[in-house]
Automatic annotation (TrEMBL):
<dbReference type="Pfam" id="PF00034">
    <property type="entry name" value="Cytochrom_C"/>
</dbReference>
<keyword id="KW-0479">Metal-binding</keyword>
<protein>
    <submittedName>
        <fullName>Cytochrome c, mono-and diheme variants</fullName>
    </submittedName>
</protein>
<feature type="domain" description="Cytochrome c">
    <location>
        <begin position="187"/>
        <end position="293"/>
    </location>
</feature>
<feature type="domain" description="Cytochrome c">
    <location>
        <begin position="38"/>
        <end position="146"/>
    </location>
</feature>
<dbReference type="InterPro" id="IPR009056">
    <property type="entry name" value="Cyt_c-like_dom"/>
</dbReference>
<dbReference type="InterPro" id="IPR036909">
    <property type="entry name" value="Cyt_c-like_dom_sf"/>
</dbReference>
<dbReference type="InterPro" id="IPR051459">
    <property type="entry name" value="Cytochrome_c-type_DH"/>
</dbReference>
<dbReference type="GO" id="GO:0009055">
    <property type="term" value="F:electron transfer activity"/>
</dbReference>
<dbReference type="GO" id="GO:0020037">
    <property type="term" value="F:heme binding"/>
</dbReference>
<keyword id="KW-0349">Heme</keyword>
<keyword id="KW-0408">Iron</keyword>
<dbReference type="GO" id="GO:0046872">
    <property type="term" value="F:metal ion binding"/>
</dbReference>
Amino acid sequence: MRRLIGVVVLAGAALAGAGWLLTAPKPLPEGSLDGATGDAERGQLVFTAAGCASCHHAPDAEGEARLVLTGGQRFASAFGTFLAPNISPDPAQGIGDWSLDDFASAVKRGVSPEGQHLYPAFPYTAYARMEDGDLVDLWAYMQTLPASDTPSQPHEVGFPFNIRRGVGAWKMLYASPDWVMTEAESPQLERGRYLVEALAHCGECHTPRDALGGLDRSAWLTGAPNPNGRGTIPGLTPDKLSWGADEIAYYLSSGFTPDYDSVGGHMVEVVENFAALPDEDRAAVAAYLKALPEGGRLD
C-alpha cells in the first residue's frame, strides 16, 4: 500500500510538473523584431482598424479625448468583469516603459512584460494573425499619443478564474494563429479576411462561445449572446444577414442600414473606425462576409 501511495504521489507530481511547463507563458523570441522601423502614419490606420481606442479610452470620453488611452471601461462576462487597462505612453501607469518586444508579446501572445498570461478579454487570439509590419507601425503610432497617469484598475474576477496560470491551458485549447477561412481566392478576400479575423477581431463578439469561453469556429460569425447578458449580437453570415455587399460597405461608412435604421451600442465606435478606413477596406470586409457559408462552418 505504501508503495502504491508513493507511486501515486510521484505520478501526481510528474503530471503537475508537466502541466506547469505546458501552461507557462510563451512570449515571442527576444529580438525577433530587431531592426524593424515603424511608420506612425501607417500605424494610425492599424490603430483605427484594430479598435484600440474603442476599448481603452476612458468611459464617456469624447472627441480627441478618446485618444487618451486611460482605460477604465468595464466589460462584463460569464467569468467576471474585466477593466481595460491604461495603455497610454505614461511610463509609470501606462506602457511607456515597455520595449517593442514587450508590446509584440502582449499583442500576439497575450504575455505581459512580467511574464504573466493576459486574460483573453484582450483579443490577442485574433491579433496573433497581425503582420509584423503592422504591429511595428502600430507601436510607432502609439508613441505619439498623449500620456495618462491614471492607474489601471484590477479586474473583478473570482476563483478559479483569477488563477492566471489557467489561462495557459485555455490558450492550448483556443489560441490558434490559423485562419478560419483557410482559402482566400482573391486579394480582396485576403484583405477582408485580414481585417475581419485579425485587426478588427469581429469574431470576438459575433461568434458564439463554448462553456470555457472559447470561440466556436464551427459557427463562425453566426451571432452570439451579448456578454453583458442583455440581448444578442447579430450573425453576419449570408443566412443571417441578407444585405448586399454594397449595403454592408455603406453601413460601415455611415451607420445606416438598408431599412433606414441606425447603428447603436458599442457598434457605433466600430462603424466610426471603419468609416475612417479606405473605401477598399470596407468593400473587402463586405466581400469576405458575402463569401461565408450559411451556418458559418468553414471546415
